[in-house]
Amino acid sequence: MSLLANVPLVAAVVATFAAQVLKVVLVLLTERRWAFDRMLETGGMPSSHSATVTALALATGLVEGFSSTYFALSVVFAGIVMYDASGIRRAAGMHAQLINDLVQELAHLFDEGFQPAALKTLLGHTYPQVVVGALVGSLTGLLVAM
Questions:
Q1: 93 CB-near residues (< 8 Å, 6+ apart)
Q2: I need a surface site. Which of 38, 46, 64, 66 has the fewest CB within 10 A?
Q3: What is the largest CA-CA distance in the chain?
Q4: How do residues 37-86 score in pLDDT, each as one tens digit?
């Protein structure tokens, strides 16, 4: 069986790509600049994590049946990923921002040669970012599985 024949897998990959492209488009529309680096970053609008697992779950349900064990597994997996993206990973990003602010505030205490690198702060997602990601994933899952 070819990987391209695996509809849930294709839906998940396409949803990931679609969400990452949408991040670049949204930066272009809101900030009037190209930000191709957003294609490879986590966090932001929409959540590619949510898009991926929602497309996977919906396509699995459409292919295997909504009463299948595979669908149940993918829904539970999606719930864990979306909870993690909007909770734990978002909190880690907020902590990183606070640490960066503290380092900047206390920069005068560091040796001249030592300058700590800023921590990455765009890690998780807000609830709207998760919801929009889930909508992108649902649309992608439907289009790929139909």
A1: 43, 120, 121, 122, 123, 124
A2: 66
A3: 63
A4: 877 777 778 999 999 999 999 999 999 999 999 999 999 999 999 988 87
Question: Does residue 131 sit in the same domain as residue 76?
Answer: yes
**Which residue intervals of 1-146 are DSSP H helices?**
7-31, 48-64, 69-86, 88-105, 127-145
Range of the domain at 92: 88-123
Q: Are residues 118 and 129 located together in one domain of the fold?
A: no
Question: Model's pTM, two decimal places?
Answer: 0.80
Contact (Cβ atoms closer than 8 angstroms) between residue 124 and residue 91: yes
Q: Closest Cα partner for 145 from 16, 49, 5, 21?
A: 5
Of 47-61, 114-128, 129-143, the one with minimum mean pLDDT is: 114-128
Query: 96-99 contacts: CB < 8 A, separation 24 or more?
Result: 96/120, 96/121, 96/123, 97/121
Q: Residue written as tokens 């909504």?
A: 66
Whether residues 45 and 73 fall in one domain: yes
Angle between helices 88-105 and 69-86 (to 10 degrees): 20
